[in-house]
Write a structure and sequence with these properties.
This protein is of the alpha+beta class. Helices cover 32% and strands 31% of the residues. It has a four-stranded antiparallel beta sheet with strand order 11-19-18-12. Strands 2-1-5 form a three-stranded mixed beta sheet. The protein has a three-stranded mixed beta sheet with strand order 4-3-9, with helices on one face.
């Protein structure tokens, strides 16, 4: 009986001492794992080496944040995601070695017969993570952007960059990023977005715009107010998508040409005379667009010539506009979208019509088929109140111009015509002496009669 008791006591003492016998001093207790990695029996140096290997692995991971076509990748090395070596070594080496024999025995025994896993929590640079999120918020809180147009020598175009407008929920993005970082592995999280506006040029539409259909350039002298109006109007029509079957209105795109809208006073034609008014110069933009549209073979729905020919395009190739009642409108009758792209520079404006290479006409021929001069008259009248003996207000001849456009595509020819009638303006000579005015008026009438009778 005593022998059995001694055997039982020895077995009990053996079991009690086993956890201490199997874990030599200065090593991790047996049965321990760290994030499922066996570490029992490791020394401090072994632990440091293991943690260094984990840090190397973690530094090679990255976090991808995305929403639709928006995607950014943030490396864990950049965010300084890492395990704190000394802190973790101290914690692990302290397991089962608290200098309290009962609790140490329990920790060691449960680790030995069961399974004791300790997590390796990662740390990161919170300031760098917040900076990354802040930069993204700033970048995408700007107005949606189509990106940069890149022109190739063969007439093809491509686009680089571009971005939508996104109202990002930054707190939620931070929480999602942290949850992924804590897994110690790379991965992807979706950007939480409260509001979104896509650029006009995106997705399938962007992929279809790959060629220059036509372009046209006009030049202008340096005049601050007029130049600013041209720049502003060009910016308003630029980067506009016109889908198949849609019409483009110049007035709708630019808005009212008022001082409140940023337009400055510059000379405009009004009742046959050049007078200062807000928006002077924008007709050069509409005329440049008209010519680009002509050469692209697009359908002209509404176009009006000026009161008199202008210097920046040939007679019959201008298109005037006026708030509320004169517009320039064209329609995209093609199978794919077109994209208006205007470039303003000192002394010149260039308008491109971009589209799909399949929609480029085989040939566009634009010719002047009529140019008729309507002579102006010279008219005399008297004004006794005027200071000068003679005052002259010069007029100009009128013109009747016809432009014909032939578009050839896959052997099919389409022809349209555009008439421009510029009315003549009388030269008015005002004389202080009424009698002299009557004589000159009579003489002018006799000359006109002689000219008519001679058939000249």
């Amino acid at each position: 009986m005593n022998f059995k008791i001694w055997i039982a006591a020895a077995a009990f003492l053996g079991l009690g001492a086993a956890p201490f016998l199997w874990s030599p001093p200065g090593t991790v207790i047996y049965g321990m794992t760290a994030d499922q990695i066996p570490i029992g029996g490791m020394t401090r140096d072994d632990l440091k080496e293991m943690i260094a290997e984990q840090n190397t692995r973690i530094s090679q991971e990255s976090l991808t944040v995305f929403h639709g076509d928006v995607k950014e990748t943030w490396s864990y090395r950049e965010l300084n995601v890492h395990l704190e070596t000394e802190k973790l070594v101290q914690q692990i080496m302290g397991e089962g070695q608290n200098n309290h024999w009962l609790s140490d025995w329990w920790d060691r025994w449960t680790a030995l017969v069961g399974h004791r896993d300790i997590s390796l929590p990662v740390q990161w640079d919170d300031e760098k993570l917040h900076t990354r999120i802040s930069r993204m918020e700033t970048k995408y809180s700007q107005e949606a952007d189509d990106g940069q147009v890149e022109f190739q020598q063969d007439g093809s175009v491509s686009f680089s960059g571009g971005r939508p407008y996104l109202k990002i929920s930054t707190d939620e993005l931070y929480d999602r990023a942290v949850r992924q970082i804590r897994t110690e592995t790379g991965g992807s999280v979706e950007i939480p977005v409260a509001e979104e506006v896509q650029p006009a040029l995106h997705g399938e539409v962007r992929r279809q715009i790959n060629a220059v259909l036509a372009s046209y350039t006009t030049e202008f002298p340096l005049d601050h107010n007029r130049n600013e109006n041209i720049r502003l109007a060009a910016s308003r029509i630029s980067r506009r998508i016109v889908l198949p079957g849609e019409s483009f209105s110049f007035n709708s795109a630019t808005g009212l040409r008022t001082k409140e809208a940023g337009y400055l006073e510059a000379p405009v034609f009004m009742n046959g005379k050049l007078v200062p008014d807000a928006g002077g110069g924008v007709c050069q933009v509409s005329s440049t667009l008209f010519n680009a549209v002509l050469e692209a073979g697009l359908e002209i729905e509404e176009r009006t010539c000026h009161f008199a020919p202008v210097g920046y395009v040939a007679a019959g190739r201008d298109a005037t506009v006026a708030d509320h009642y004169i517009d320039f409108v064209f329609r995209n009758q093609l199978a794919r979208p077109v994209y208006i792209y205007a470039i303003y520079g000192p002394g010149a404006i260039q308008v491109y019509i971009l589209g799909n290479r399949e929609d480029i006409p085989d040939h566009v021929d634009i010719v002047q088929t009529r140019f008729t001069v309507n002579p102006h008259r010279t008219v005399y009248h008297s004004d006794p109140s005027q200071k000068e003996g003679k005052f002259t207000e010069y007029g100009h001849d009128g013109y009747d111009v016809m432009i014909r456009r032939d578009i050839i595509k896959k052997g099919v020819k389409k022809t349209d015509e555009f008439q421009s009638v510029y009315d003549p303006v009388d030269t008015v000579i005002s004389l202080k002496d009424p009698e002299e005015a009557r004589k000159m008026e009579k003489l002018q009438g006799e000359k006109a009669a002689d000219k008519e009778s001679s058939g000249v």
